[in-house]
Amino acid sequence: MKAENEQRTGLLYGFGAYGMWGLVPLFWPLLKPSGAIEILAHRMVWSLAVVGVALLALRRWSWIAEIVRQPRKLGLTALAAAVISVNWGLYIWAVNNGQVVEASLGYFINPLVTIAIGVLVLGERLRRAQWAAVGIGLAAVLVLSVGYGRLPWISLTLAFSFAAYGLIKKKLDMGGLESLAAETALQFLPALGYLVWLGVQGRSTFAAEGLGHSALLAATGLVTAVPLVCFGAAAIRVPLSTLGLLQYLAPVFQFALGVVYFHEAMPPERWAGFSLVWAALVLLTWDALRTARRSRALLAEASATAAAGAASASASETGTATGTAGARAVPGTDPAPSREPA
Fold first, then answer.
1. pTM attached to this predicted model
2. Which one of 203, 206, 277, 327 is most buried, by most CB atoms within 10 A?
3. Would you write out the chain's pLDDT as a tens digit for each of its 342 residues?
């Protein structure tokens, strides 16, 4: 019962995290007339404030000394901060410039790009279904390139930057809250410097647009941190396969907002390209579920075989012990060699 409650709670956290990420396109336009770079700088500054308060409440500071003593880990953190800065900044720009649908495509094809990076960088071997999914994904990019009249560079940059970020995070092996704190700590001074420079130039919108606008800019820290906290809570409660399925919620919501709410154009060739992407994701999901089911069956079979072997060995030992005790209990017998009188 406790395990079921934990999984139910994890699902709620997962829906919360991906739901918030899916609805975030509604938030960035509220920050106009701030530009994408100014919004990004505020996001970095206020995110550090939020995670700093969270770490203070949880009293989790030991990781700081550990990361400072390891130059490799510090370098990877700096690289992660740079990559996610590109991802955040481009996404904000895309949403505020009427490219929500193309931005959502980036997160649809992200699993395919992650698989490709696994092959190219980590030397992983793919199953046939995975190769087929990657091939369909490449065909989708070609179709969409024809539809847009150019490469869907926003989608590709978002997908590759987030996939690279995931690879770096895998090598870092840090908790979500700690890694976000480390990354935003490295982003903080450049971001604050940029905001100060905007203020000196008279181009800052933080105070010029009123208290409500200032509060919205400060809320970028919560918009960044809260979904990550929910994601972390979900990750420790639900299976990875379930979390993998939940990740499609965010781009589905973003795509729906782009078409229905922001009324972005979807000519037939774009529908064709997106349909290919969705077909690739269906194939990828089917293969992942089939592989997970097969792995569970093999594990259950191995456990049953091991249990049967242990039971058989135990029964054999019991039988041997019983036979020996019976032999010793027969009157007039002596299992030890007898000695003849001299």
1. 0.81
2. 277
3. 677 777 788 889 889 989 999 999 999 999 999 999 999 999 999 999 998 888 888 787 878 887 888 888 889 999 999 999 999 999 999 999 999 999 999 998 888 888 888 777 777 787 888 888 888 888 988 988 888 889 899 999 999 998 888 888 878 777 777 888 889 899 999 999 999 999 999 999 998 889 999 999 999 999 988 888 888 778 778 776 677 778 888 999 999 999 999 999 999 988 999 999 999 888 888 887 787 787 777 777 777 777 777 766 666 666 655 555 555 554 544 444 444 443
Calculate ∠ Cα 283-153-284, nearest 5°: 10
Using an 8 Å Cβ cutoff, are 71 and 63 in contact?
no
- Characterise 330 by phi-psi region: left (phi > 0), alpha (psi -120 to 50), beta (else): beta
Q: Which two tokens stand for residue 24?
A: 């975030």
Query: What CA–CA distance (Å, rounded) separates 207 from 263?
Result: 32
